[in-house]
Write a structure and sequence with these properties.
Layout: H1 3-12, H2 24-32, E1 38-39, H3 52-70, H4 80-91, E2 102-106, H5 107-119, E3 125-130, H6 134-142, E4 146-153, E5 156-157, H7 159-171, E6 176-181, H8 197-208, E7 211-215, E8 239-244, E9 255-259, H9 262-276, H10 281-293, H11 296-321, E10 327-328, E11 336-340, H12 347-356, E12 359-360, E13 362-363, E14 376-380, H13 386-410
Parallel strand pairs: 1-12, 3-4, 3-6, 6-7, 7-8
Antiparallel strand pairs: 2-9, 4-5, 8-9, 10-11, 11-14, 13-14
The structure holds 4'-deoxy-4'-aminopyridoxal-5'-phosphate.
């Protein structure tokens, strides 16, 4: 493209595109995907334990027996049978829902988009945990929301910090519409909201007239046989719940859902139709068959077992190899460990050296709307084998040690300001 036509396009873009930029790490990740690099960056589920041959038979049967429905346009809300099954899945988390209030979406990412679309006008505030999911931050930014982060600790979102954030935003005259929270096995922080905090957080939001957006793709992937009660289970009117089959089954099918208060459901269906006409019928029917014919809870157990072993391996390797002053979270489920390096580190600046050393991670600032997180990084244990995880942590500790040497000789990096959330790639999700 010539410079001239590029300029013309720049002038044509809608204002909402200003927050959309590719991050510098995107380019690096094309290198990070080479087999010699151990990637602790991506949040890809480890699909090898899926019953692929049986699923292939299912897919063929679906086309043969119900192809004229499966390959046709469908309902903007999603097929009824699957919505009924989704209600059964959610009942494991204490949710008592009606299929009428479920809207099937193209992954929960689309659900995030639709919810933001129907609630947020430019400049309105969304509260989100510090740090928060990069894909949500870029959706929020594309609707020109203003994200205000709220502190977490090992017990998840801190209610006192939530109260303080609400007061500060209200004092500045801005309107808060949503609290976006990932209560279970947080991406990227790896922590889980304590049971006693859940009703407190819900009450604070109700009192302040703020809707809760509960994003729960990892909820069934706990390692201790425990399923945490959803915030939605005790607050049907003020919580919009997002679920997904991406982590418990397969992300390639791109099927997620929203469970919304009845009045909101109607607008969501309209927004869904405007965006995609309908979620893919074939994929919904595949999932519906899978839930019907397989022992899907055993499949989830197999995932839990795989990920628990990898979590243990990663935590042991970190314990053994990370330098003093480094801390990390101890997830009880999900995919991620959140690592904080000693004062003076800049994980974004260090990433090119890490990739040269054949190890990739996601720098912490990707998970903040305001450029914080420079000493932090997300490591995922979901995809690499335990051997690769150990090797990855070893390489990472070499990079950190070399960086420490440089810092001792020349002084610490001055942290570089980084503006706004960047467009996520498959490697950062
Ligand atoms: N929310 C969170 C917290 C996630 O980690 C992800 C995927 N990484 C999503 C939503 C989107 O998932 P999907 O669209 O595949 O359902």
């Amino acid at each position: 493209m010539t410079g001239n036509s590029l300029d013309q396009h720049l002038q044509r873009y809608a204002q909402r595109t200003t927050g959309m930029r590719a991050s510098a790490i995107r380019a690096l990740f094309s290198v990070a995907n080479r087999p010699e690099v151990v990637s602790l960056a991506g949040g890809m589920p480890f699909l090898n334990s899926l019953p692929l041959e049986a699923l292939a038979v299912d897919a063929a049967q679906l086309v043969g027996e119900e192809g004229l429905v499966a390959l046709q346009y469908g309902s903007g809300q999603g097929i009824l049978r699957l919505r009924e099954q989704i209600c059964q899945v959610m009942s494991l988390e204490g949710i008592d829902a009606h299929p009428d209030d479920v809207v099937v979406t193209v992954g929960s990412q689309m659900a995030l988009d639709l919810t933001t679309r129907i609630f947020i006008d430019p400049g309105e505030v969304i509260l989100a945990e510090a740090p928060s999911y990069v894909g949500a931050l870029s959706t929020f930014s594309s609707y020109q929301a203003s994200v205000v982060h709220v502190a977490m600790d090992d017990g998840g979102l801190i209610p006192e910090a939530l109260v303080a954030a609400i007061a500060a935003v209200q004092a500045s005259g801005r309107r808060i519409k949503l609290l976006y929270t990932i209560p279970n096995y947080h991406n990227p922080a790896g922590v889980t909201m304590a049971a006693e905090r859940r009703p407190v957080v819900a009450q604070i939001c109700r009192d302040a007239g703020i809707l809760v957006l509960e994003d729960n793709p990892y909820g069934l992937l706990g390692f201790d046989d425990k399923v945490h009660r959803a915030l939605r289970a005790d607050d049907a009117d003020n919580v919009i719940y997002l679920g997904s089959f991406s982590k418990t089954f397969a992300p390639g099918l791109r099927v997620g859902w929203v469970l919304a208060p009845h009045a909101v459901r109607e607008k969501l269906v309209l927004a869904n139709e405007a965006a995609t006409l309908n979620p893919p019928v074939f994929n919904q029917m595949m999932i519906s068959r899978y839930l019907e014919t397989y022992d899907w809870q055993s499949q989830i157990k197999a995932y839990q077992h795989t990920y628990a072993e990898r979590r243990d391996t990663m935590l042991a390797a970190l314990q053994q190899m990370m330098p003093a002053g480094t801390t990390w979270t101890h997830p009880t489920g999900g995919f991620y460990v959140w690592v904080t390096l000693p004062e003076g580190f800049d994980t974004a600046a260090m990433l090119p050296r890490a990739v040269t050393n054949r190890i990739a991670y996601v720098p912490g600032n990707a998970f903040y709307a305001d450029g914080l997180g420079s000493r932090q990084m997300r490591l995922s244990f979901c995809f690499p084998t335990p051997e690769r995880i150990v090797e990855g942590v070893r390489r990472l500790s070499d990079v950190i040690d070399a960086e420490l040497d440089v810092m001792r000789t020349f002084g610490a990096h001055s942290p570089r300001p980084v503006g706004g959330p960047r467009s996520p790639s498959n490697d950062t999700l």
